[in-house]
Sequence to fold (115 residues):
Amino acid sequence: MRLHHKPFQDIKSGKKTIEARLHDEKRQQIKINDHIIFSNRTNSAEIIKSKVTRLSKFNSFKEMFSHFGTGPFGFSSNSIIDATSSMSQYYSKEEEQKYGVIGIHIELVSSPKIA
Fold:
């Protein structure tokens, strides 16, 4: 999975422990104990490996952020409204309603590497 620089750095530092995504067909294939390779969009050669420890499904990002708070997702603001608004730049309301959302709980397996 590709990430923008800040979320990538937040996973790398351990600040971000849950990746929020649409629960579309691709994410429906993810299982506990799977490994996910994250790449940094700013430097696509920089990658980190993580292990899926838990999956949390919700109807909406607002519902998920209300349940866990915004911190585990790497947001600097505690505002659920800000976090939900941030996700709307990636996914439409229609997609969110169609698929629901998933919180992919991860733990870092390996330090960043250059591919």
About this structure: The first helix runs from residue 5 to 13. The two ends are 14 Å apart (CA to CA). The chain has four helices and five strands.
